[in-house]
Write a structure and sequence with these properties.
The protein is mostly helical. It has a domain of 38 residues. The chain contains 1 helix and no strands. The radius of gyration is 30 Å and the shape is rod-shaped. The N and C termini lie far apart (90 Å). Bound molecules: zinc ion (ZN). Zinc ion binds next to loops. Keywords: Metal-binding, Zinc.
Amino acid sequence: MQCPVCRRSTTWTDNPWRPFCCERCQLIDLGTWAAEGYRIPGSSLTADASPRQADKEEQSDDAPSER
Ligand SMILES: [Zn+2]
């Protein structure tokens, strides 16, 4: 089989780091997983993302013309 990190052929049997080929690749994979998992939910910097929508219907076409 192949190591999912470095794509090298690794042995499944008698391999303490399976399915990786070595400890390094295992740490890399764990590091990647941890990095993705350490995204703290609720830490988004969207401060009150609810802009006021001034939906005033401006009907200024019927402007009274003063003569
Ligand atoms: Zn590897």
